[in-house]
């Protein structure tokens, strides 16, 4: 089985994906987008698609945003290290959990200040994000600085966005490998976003495993975090692989996750302000960022409903095939529809 | 593996295909067609899409066709039983081969007469077909009775048809289960066509095996056929299952091919004159027919290039997973790209 799976990883690249993400220098027609990207589950980067957004000029000025949103409460995510929704040691023995950020609603100016003053030294990193359509709720005051949808994607996909999310962070905030059950149009407004991408065919290379859910809580008086396992116990299936292990962990990580480190390289792409990434549903992605002039990175992403079609059924079949490789690899078998404990059903 | 594969067969039906082929009562827009059918690898039947073709009125009259094509030579396929490109016993011991028809070029009026006078009693069945773009070559004289393409499909797929084929036959001609590496728009002009359809996910249910290629040759003086294995030996991978075995063979066929007979029923659809079937690439199909007023069935099909994308890579992976089921099932493993001996690469 191992040989056949490796052939699949290679074949999808040779036949369809190539070695680099396609770049389009103007918005595609709905038909072109649907035929050459969505239907084929193939990402692309589109330039010059949001040049008309006022946000592109305005949002790199913290004074503008803080002024416009001075009375709005937004969800601030706090962690000691910038890794939320990530596999994290929870005991001194190194037992791992799936850690969620401490979330609190604070006035936007205070929240932005917390993001901009994030510090690894002080072990407090703020990230403005909330994947619950926050752009159209918490940030409705500035919603008119962007379009409400990506028009050619809406026409191609035949529906309006199910959720629109805003992200404001610094280089300290990193999103670990995961996938979403949405078609994703991801627009960078200020700064840069760096994506590592792996197609759904490569699911075994990420060693998805169930981890006990845990939550950070932040204690303002001592400026410290506590990480506690949720009770009753709940398990979240999540990717085990950190693509950028620290030098002292690299050798052991490479031994633990040979499919990832020894297989085809993930696709890498950097999105500059003004560019959109089409990230197909079920693609695994790892996201980091470089701040722009304002000292932060801003992005808006549009989630459109995906089709649960033959591609999704094939993915489930592939995922259900267990690892069976070296003794270092966990013997795992996972099915989407058995992920009932994962909450939002996303890995 | 068997359990996971059965779940795949069920899941693709539950999530996407449903229990019956969709029917559209007017031609879809290119976007609708691409989004809801091509991208999802989902068949549909379209009515009222070719009502304007002169062929619909003219071609059920043998006199019209024979008059219009009186000077044209066309490819007549002859077999003793109406089964060409099918698995057939080649020895009295029952050894099986992949049998191709005797093909000769004859003037159209004579060819049509051979089709209309086909007889199982006389063991001579004629079928007018040639899957090499014959409609635009051998039948160019009457090509203007139809459209040169299916306009909304051409726009959706972003290319013109690679081949257009004509089929004139009787109830005696049956096409065995196989798949094509093309997106197929199949239009019935006279009579009815009956399709049994299975999605690519169900590949193991058809027990694709390599059979030695063989050819019928027809001896006009004795009005008999000879079936001979090709030399040098060449193997063609083909579906082993006959969905309609004779009563005396039924019990043994059911034992030999349990995945087919015990699994989900194939989709069945009957196309009437004036209807089009969208048959997605890689779908397995078995075709039979009921003659119209002229004593024959006529169909024109448009083959468009398919995308060799992630769906195709998934299919190849699935196909490469061996059978491993009951002792009655052959242990088989097959990959598309190793089909080099199959000639046109089709199963």
Helix and strand topology:
The structure is a homodimer of 347-residue chains.
Chain A: H1 2-17, E1 22-24, H2 30-38, E2 44-46, H3 55-58, H4 62-68, E3 73-79, E4 83-84, E5 86-89, E6 96-100, E7 102-107, H5 108-116, E8 125-128, H6 134-137, H7 151-157, E9 163-169, E10 174-178, E11 182-190, E12 192-198, E13 209-219, E14 224-229, E15 235-238, H8 247-256, H9 258-262, E16 267-272, E17 276-279, E18 284-290, E19 297-305, H10 310-320
Organism (chains A, B): Brassica rapa subsp. trilocularis
Family (chains A, B): Belongs to the JARID1 histone demethylase family.
Pfam families (chains A, B): Cupin_8
Oligomer kind: homodimer
State the share of residues found in helices of chain A, binned by percent.
10-25%
- Number of β-strand runs of chain A: 19
Rg for CA atoms of chain A = 20 Å
Q: Which range does the strand content of chain A fall in? A: 25-35%
Task: Give an account of the 3D structure.
Mean pLDDT of chain A is 92; it is low at 325-346. In chain A, strand 5 and strand 6 (96-100) form a beta hairpin. In chain A, strands 1-2-17-11-19-9 form a 6-stranded mixed β-sheet. In chain A, strands 4-10-18-12-16 form a 5-stranded mixed β-sheet, with no helix packed on it. Chain A is globular and about 55 Å long. Chain A has a single domain (1-320), classed as Jelly Rolls. Chain A has 347 residues and is an alpha+beta fold. The two termini of chain A are 23 Å apart. Chain A contains 10 helices and 19 strands. In chain A, 24% of the residues lie in helices and 31% in strands. The A-B interface holds A 1, 4-5, 7-8, 11-12, 15-16, 30-32, 34-36, 38-42, 155-158, 199-201, 307-318, 320-321, 335, 337 and B 1, 4-5, 7-8, 11-12, 15-16, 30-32, 34-36, 38-42, 155-158, 199-201, 307-318, 320-321, 335. Chains A, B: Belongs to the JARID1 histone demethylase family. Chains A, B: Pfam families: Cupin_8 (PF13621). Chains A, B: Residues 126-319 form the JmjC domain.
């Amino acid at each position: 089985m191992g040989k056949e799976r490796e052939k699949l990883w290679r074949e999808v690249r040779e036949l369809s994906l190539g070695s680099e993400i396609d770049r389009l220098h103007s918005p595609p027609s709905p038909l072109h987008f649907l035929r050459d990207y969505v239907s084929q589950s193939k990402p692309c980067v589109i330039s010059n698609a949001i040049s008309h957004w006022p946000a592109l000029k305005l949002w790199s000025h913290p004074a503008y945003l803080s002024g416009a949103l001075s009375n709005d409460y937004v969800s601030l995510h706090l962690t000691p290290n910038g890794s939320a929704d990530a596999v994290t040691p929870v005991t001194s023995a190194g037992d791992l959990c799936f850690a969620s950020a401490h979330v609190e609603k604070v006035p936007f100016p205070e929240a932005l200040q917390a993001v901009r003053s994030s510090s690894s030294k002080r072990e407090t990193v703020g990230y403005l994000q909330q994947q619950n359509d926050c752009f159209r709720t918490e940030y409705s005051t500035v919603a008119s600085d962007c379009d409400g949808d990506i028009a050619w994607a809406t026409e191609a996909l035949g529906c309006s966005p199910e959720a629109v999310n805003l992200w404001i962070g610094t280089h300290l905030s990193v999103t670990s490998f995961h996938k979403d059950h949405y078609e994703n149009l991801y627009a960078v407004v200020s700064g840069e976003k760096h994506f590592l991408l792996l197609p759904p065919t490569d699911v075994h290379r990420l060693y998805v495993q169930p981890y006990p859910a845990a939550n950070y809580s932040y204690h303002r008086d001592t400026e410290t975090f506590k990480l506690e396992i949720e009770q009753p116990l709940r398990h979240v299936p999540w990717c085990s692989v950190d693509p950028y292990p620290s030098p002292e962990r690299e050798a052991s990580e490479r031994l633990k996750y040979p499919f990832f480190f020894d297989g085809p390289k993930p696709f890498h792409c950097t999105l500059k302000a003004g560019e959109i990434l089409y990230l197909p549903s079920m693609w695994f992605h790892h996201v980091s960022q470089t701040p722009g002039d304002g000292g932060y990175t801003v992005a808006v992403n549009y989630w459109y409903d995906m089709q649960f079609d033959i591609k999704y059924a094939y993915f489930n079949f592939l995922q259900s095939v267990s690892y069976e490789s070296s003794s270092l690899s966990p013997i795992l078998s996972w099915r989407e529809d058995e992920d009932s404990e994962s909450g939002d059903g996303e890995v």
